[in-house]
Structures are given as C-alpha cells and as structure tokens.
C-alpha cells in the first residue's frame, strides 16, 4: 500500500498529492475542509460505499420472495443478546432509543429455536458475498452460545450458506478472561477469524472501569488480567484494540500517544482504532445515553487535527489510506515503530438515509428470528424465520 514519507522534523504529516476522486452521496461528516485535508493527505482512497450506477458493486438476490439489490461489500451480524452485557458503558449505542422505535434489540433474548432459524436465514442467503460481523451485546459472555454460533456459521459456509470474505468479532474480552477463554480462542482460530476488535477505552485500569463499568466479579476489569488476555489473543490472531474517544477518557493528543504506547508494549496489539461517538440525527429520544454522548463527545475533527499538527505525537506517522463508507470514514496510518492506527467517524443520519432506500447495506439477524436490513428489530424485515418456510435462492 503506498504511503506518505514521514519526516522527523516535520510538524505535521507530510502531504502526498493524489488524483481527485469523484465521491457521491457520502456521509455528512465528509463534507468539510478538514475532510478535504485528509483526502489530500491520503495516498490511497478506498470507496467502500458503492455507487448506485456501478453494477459490479451490487449483488442481486431473492430473499423472502422479493428480488433485492445488496451493496458490496456487505456485512451480516447475528445479533448477540443471550444475556445483558457484562459491561455497562454509558455511551453504548444499544441503549439509544428511536422516537418511533419498538422493542430494542438489546431487550430481545433468543429461545431454543434460535440456531435453527439462523441456519434457515443463512440458507436463504446462499451464494451472497458477505462478511461475518459478530457483535450486538457481548458475544463471549455465554461461552456455550458463542461456540454454537460459530458452529452454525461454519456449517453454513461449508454447505448452503453465503460466500464469506472476512470474519470479525467485536468484544470487550470478558469471556476470554474466564476459565473457558482458551477454548473460545481456539474456536475462533478454527473458525478462521480475520481479526478481533477488543474494546478498552483507556490505558489506565481505574479510568477504564469508570467508563466501561464491568459488572462485579468480572476478571477482565483488572488491568493486569486484561493485558494478559490481550496478549494471549494477539498471539492467536490479529488483534485490534478499540478506544472510544470521550472527555473522561482519551480526549487529548497526549492521551492518544500514551494509549498507543500501552497498546503495543503491554497488549501486543498490531492495530489501534480510535472512534468518535457516532453523530446522531434528530430521531432519538433524549435519554441518559443520548445525554452522555452530548456531554462527553470529543470531536474527531479537532482531536485528529491536533494530533497531526503536534510533532511530539505524530512524528514518524505515515498516512496510508482513507476509507469512505456508506455512513462512516476512517483514516489509516502507521507509526514509526510499525503500529497501524485508525481514526474513525460515523454518522447515523447518513446510515438511516441509506437504509431508507430499497437497497440493502446491512444484514442483521435478531434473537426474535427476523432478518432485517438494519439495526432495528421489526423494521425493514426481509425474512421472518418463525413464520415462513425458507428456501434458498436459486
């Protein structure tokens, strides 16, 4: 991948000229002088959101008797909600509530028919190119459920399910710090996990616990246990540490620098991801989570600009690529000692606008047996495995 050439004496990341890129219908967060600076600085721009006019970027498939157009690339999430999450982060998007929403996904619980229904939904997606994106609440909290999930997904790959490109798990690590953690790790290796995204929102244990609020008695809350667990995971598979920016946590360039050093030296991470709170549109209720996001937000534009312009922080950084997705963007760079770093911002307003079209940008299978084109149960339902006989698309 082409990259900029860093200069030890520079006060900012070197600018690498590139051909202008025609980009249509991007998230609102990409329409700013700041974003134009990033686009100019990046040696490579990846347009993840498909142009509606590019036939090669879409896959046509019949789901539930209706012909659909599916964006490429596409991810499928079997929403994990077998029990309440082991962490209680104040910013958790699963606790946001739409003003016109129904039962939230985080309140749903799978019953004994869940995996049969999931298998039927996957048969209905036979041959569809997509990636597994394992998230929801905390997948690793119930080891038995997670192992059965991996078995079900692997079986669909081996027989009559979708065609899989990447396999990614998003986790807070709680289950991996328990006695059965090694079994879960081996199962992910056998599953062929592409990488694991492990959440830790501050490099100091006490500050992180104040943010993530792990439930009493969970070993993963302890700093030494977390670091040991992270190193074990890094030895087994590609590991990305994920830090959500917030005023009570990582908020300044010096925090970014300290977190990067800790992640590489104490956790063995090959990649660190810094994410901004997702930008909300006006369709959400004013609940405690929405108020937390408002009060604790650290604007990505300001923080990333400060990092790039601070020689003590960004000396040796090389900008590698900029990715523009259907509701997010991220900037990937590499530090002088080889650590990959990603800064990411997302816009829920842009996401909802995409989901409101007839095109499919996301697939989520919920615990109630519904396959939906988005993150809201009961909305944009493509298939209800409880009420119909599912046949694979020919």
Q: Gap between N and C termini, in Å?
A: 38 Å
Instruction: Return the domain count.
Output: 1
| Tally of helical runs | 11
Biggest β-sheet strands, sense, barrel: 13 strands, mixed
Summarize the topology.
Layout: H1 33-41, E1 45-47, E2 58-63, E3 66-71, E4 75-78, H2 114-123, E5 129-134, H3 143-158, E6 163-171, H4 181-191, E7 195-199, H5 205-212, H6 223-236, E8 239-244, H7 253-267, E9 271-275, H8 288-296, H9 300-309, H10 311-314, E10 318-324, E11 328-334, E12 340-346, H11 348-355, E13 363-365, E14 370-372, E15 381-384
Parallel strand pairs: 1-10, 4-5, 4-13, 5-6, 6-7, 7-8, 8-9, 9-12
Antiparallel strand pairs: 2-3, 10-11, 11-12, 13-14, 14-15
Any overview of this molecule?
The structure is a single chain. With 394 residues, the chain is an alpha/beta fold. It has a single domain, classed as Aldolase class I (TIM Barrel, Alpha-Beta Barrel). It is 29% helix and 21% strand. It is built from 11 helices and 15 strands. The chain has helices spanning 33-41, 114-123, 143-158, 181-191, 205-212, 223-236, 253-267, 288-296, 300-309, 311-314, 348-355, and strands at 45-47, 58-63, 66-71, 75-78, 129-134, 163-171, 195-199, 239-244, 271-275, 318-324, 328-334, 340-346, 363-365, 370-372, 381-384. The strands form 2 sheets. A 13-stranded mixed sheet has the order 1-10-11-12-9-8-7-6-5-4-13-14-15. It has a two-stranded antiparallel sheet with strand order 2-3. Helix 2 links the parallel strand 4 (75-78) and strand 5. Helix 2 packs parallel to helix 3. The chain starts with 32 loop residues before the first helix and ends in a 10-residue tail after the last strand. The model is unreliable at 1-28 and 390-394 (pLDDT under 50).
